[in-house]
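Each letter names a residue; structure tokens follow underneath. Both lines appear below:
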Amino acid sequence: MAAFVKSRGASIPMGVGEYNGYSDTTISAAGEMLLSTPNIWFGCMWNATGGKGLTLEGERLAAFQKTLADPRCVRPA
């Protein structure tokens, strides 16, 4: 997404409407991508409660909480 926007000569804030992962590794990788990509302003974690996906708990929840605790994650005042 960032490469696409940049290839069009733009530099605008971007957001990830929702993301999740089937393991703590994929959730950590997604969090790292969000925090290390310039102009990503937000990423919404999807917490599935039924149907496709998994409820955010255990090691997956810990991986998400680690992303939130990263000093690059700035919360609005």
Q: What stands out?
A: The CA atoms of residues 16 and 43 lie 4 Å apart. Helices lie at 2-7, 24-36, 58-69. Strands lie at 14-19, 40-45.
